[in-house]
Specification:
The protein contains nine helices and nine strands. The chain has 249 residues and is α/β, with parallel strands linked by helices. The protein folds into two domains: 6-79 and 152-243, Rossmann fold (3-Layer(aba) Sandwich), CATH 3.40.50; 89-149, no CATH class. It is globular, with a radius of gyration of 18 Å. It binds adenosine-5'-triphosphate. Residues 15, 18, 20, 38, 40-46 line the site of adenosine-5'-triphosphate.
Length: 249
């Protein structure tokens, strides 16, 4: 039997008194497009950081593509494409050079120009990244995540800083990667786009996974109508955070 792309059991993270993630049990199947949602401060980036070995858990276990993310980091990262929450480009290096560096690290053979064309940066291949706008940086980071045809893409807020063309591009890239057979796990506040591309969503609230399922599952579970959106589901499950001022920071 194939292992899930992502599996966690009791995964928890505390920062001093702050409980950032509380006993997360989650399974994401191979080939799934999974949206990870929640108000500001819910624990989404914390979860992603744990899965990518950018942080260590206080308790619990996880497997990523069948690897232990903390003890088999190199093997794991070679098969994962990562778009981090914030990516600082090297100002003096061109877009092409950024992709070559990732390609070398992953021992992949991708053509940097083809990847840059795919994210709409064909005209900026040899431009230093220090001259890039925020949206161009985000496109470059997306191209970097695609190097080596990863089995799993982990995208933290992939729509950040993008114009409507960029948003549509990310949506198309996610769909194309899923079509290729990759698993896509991403966090986002752009719920309209989430609704279009995700097979299932998980909603995190105050560090706890409050629900998970397809939009149809969640609509019927919450007794919302057939035309309820992901936004309606989100608001229903996290309403108290809006009242307390959380989620609107
Ligand atoms: N390095 C850290 N040190 C202390 N507290 C942290 C740290 N990282 C996150 N936290 C806290 O953990 C909680 C979860 O934060 P996290 O960044 O995971 O939320 P998020 O769901 O990604 O939010 P957003 O939508 O705003 O990006 C918050 O209360 C945050 O203040």
């Amino acid at each position: 039997m194939t292992t899930p792309a992502i599996e966690t059991e009791g995964l928890s993270k505390r920062y001093g008194e702050t409980v950032a993630l509380e006993r997360l049990d989650l399974s994401v199947s191979r080939g799934e497009v999974f949206g990870f949602l929640g108000p500001n401060g819910a624990g989404k980036s914390t979860t992603i950081n744990l899965l990518l070995n950018y942080a260590k858990p206080t308790e619990g276990t996880a497997s990523v593509l069948g690897y232990d993310p903390w003890n088999e980091v190199v093997e794991c990262h070679r098969r994962v494409g990562i778009l981090p929450d914030r990516y600082d480009t090297y100002d003096g290096l061109s877009a092409r050079r950024h992709l070559q560096l990732v390609r070398d690290t992953k021992r992949a053979t991708d053509d940097p120009e083809a990847l840059l064309e795919r994210v709409g940066l064909a005209d900026a291949v040899d431009q230093p990244a220090g001259e890039f706008s925020q949206g161009m940086e985000q496109r470059l980071a997306l191209a970097m995540s695609l190097v080596g045809e990863p089995d799993l893409l982990v995208l933290d807020e992939p729509f950040t800083g993008l114009d409507p063309h960029g948003v549509a591009l990310v949506r198309d890239v996610v769909a194309a990667e899923a079509e290729r057979g990759a698993t896509v796990f991403f966090s986002s506040h752009v719920l309209g786009q989430v609704q279009v591309v995700c097979d299932r969503v998980g909603i995190l609230h105050r560090g706890r996974l409050v629900d998970v399922g397809s939009l149809a599952d969640l609509r019927s579970k919450l007794d919302l109508g057939d035309d309820a959106t992901v936004e309606d589901v989100f608001v229903d499950l996290t309403a108290d955070s809006v009242r307390s001022g959380e989620g609107v920071r």
